[in-house]
Description:
This protein is an all-alpha fold. It has helices at residues 2-7, 20-32, 37-46, 55-65.
Amino acid sequence: MADALASATGPVLAYCRSGTRSTLLWALARAAKGDHPAVLSEQATDAGYDLSPVAAMMDMLRGRAS
């Protein structure tokens, strides 16, 4: 997912039945690039998804990106 997002020149379509796995992977990839977990969580919530299952991992990945 991180490679697809990094190399994309436009929108990226990630498919799974409910969208949850795609959203979780998107959030982890963005956190690894340094995006703030609270901002990612707000964006996911606005789209109807919950990032709490990966909250600790987002914090860890963001810390490694700094």
